[in-house]
Design a protein that fits this description.
This protein is of the alpha+beta class. The protein contains 14 helices and 29 strands. The longest helix is centred in the middle third of the chain and has 21 residues.
Length: 596
Amino acid sequence: APPPPQKNTKGGNPHPPQQQSQQNSGPGGKPRPLYDVPYLYEAREFLRKKLIGRRVTCKVDYVQEYMGEVRQMATGIIGNTNDGVNVGEALIQKGLATVVRYAADNENRSGVYDFLMAAELTAQKKSAGMHSNKQPPSHRVNDLSGDVGKSRTFLTYLTRAGKMEATVEYVMSGSRFRVYIPRETCIATLILSGIDCPRAARKFPSGQEEPAMPFGQEAFDFVRDLVLQRDLSISVEGMDRGGNFIGWMYLPESSSGGDIPAGGNLNVALVRQGLATVHFSAERSPFYPALCEAEKRAKSERKNLWQNYDEEAAANAAAETAEKETREEENGSRSNGKETPLYLKALVTAVNSDLSVYIQLAESASAIVQLCSQLSAHFDGNTTPGVVPPGLKKGDLVACRYSVDNCGYRGRVLSVTGGDTYEVLYVDFGNVERVTRDQMAPLPFTLSSSPPPFAMRLRPAMIQPHFETDFQQQAVQELSRDLLDSTVFVSFESGSVVGHTPSAAVAGTDAGRVGVIVTPGSNSAAPPKKEEDIGDGEDAAEKLLSKGLVWVDNLTTKSKGGDKRYKDLLAKYGKAQSDAQSNRRLIWKYGDFRED
């Protein structure tokens, strides 16, 4: 059953400990943490242990307006209304609060006001808490939140400690918490490891509000009900660049949720509820099998993030990805000059100014069509796009409408060009466009990391563009005329991957891969399995060399010229370059410029 609706109430007439002077203020006069205000920590702990996880009967005594906020002032009873414990009275009797004084004819006071006054008199006689003449207890607590230097100092101790006790002070989102760690007497921010969890709505100091990601609020509500102000256990395994600790959280023995037993792993519970997905970094964790099993069950039950999950389509996409990886491995297995390159069929979707191109492997065609259909539905169908959050920055993934066909695609922000205009890279096609905010929407969470980008950056092997802009532009125009929107055959150099992993490729800034690009000949419907099968197809790099638009990279020649695997390719390129030199074509018009 869903949790009951929550209301904020304030105890009628008890007055909590207050900061009496600037002596309890930190640098610059800012209030110090809860732990430095005399008896406030003790009052909070008394209430936390009395109330958290217990049923309380609240009776509203009166309503009070304070700074534009309407507050319900109530009496809280633990247990039966007749013989239960009055929370405010118990707090006052411990000397952890005082009674607010009112005029005799003031109706805005507690219905048990006389009992509260009697409790305070008892506390004074016993010199309890705030009424004692002794020095108030002090709590020296280090606040590590956002302090990279301090966090780094504590990191070693926390990682070595293993599983340790903690109290959740505040829930920021489904996977981010502010915790107090008694072992090291410190407060820190803990981010759950091994999962991707959607963000809840948040408000910036500037006043701008960022809407919740899909199921971000549900994730927030789920963890808040389980762990807020509860004693539990955590383990720390690392730290991010902001000084926040990364680790695991274990539910308190008195709680359970998401088919996870008491004392179970909260990271796994979120995944089991379909409120988070497994992050690739979890592969190194002992909890990886449990996370995968939890995600599998959430998918099969179509819970939350997986409510539109298509198991058959996902299986097909996984099979295509596995096949592509297998063929790429085979493609890079040339050794001892005996094996010939294995060519793959691809579509060139973009040509860049550095002569690299973006390609889509033909075997991914069906998955690309399905992805584009989902994103178009995100804009035009039953799914209503949300508002793009403020403060978009370089590297953020969004859904964008392409101006040419008005369809939806995945885009990564390359730069903010001013106002509400952004330069984005369409990560599944490789082209770049400037778009405005009204062309954008938050990317559905399930499409932000899977499938990986379909556009692969490929640079023709062993050639170098000329340093003059005019020649560079001519080479790009020639390459675009021959390859753009055309089907080609590609062969990757072994070991040529430079930052091309699913996580790097989405950034659009990776160096990509290096290889050979061949246009199909008249009898080349299928990818050639041997060099001689190319027939009358044209090698893109060889054609640029013969036209005198590029030159053979000297460093490549020196490093690979003695390698039998590249001997034939270098000989072919060297012949094309020599022909351009002898005929004084373009960059060779005034002789060999490299001698300068």
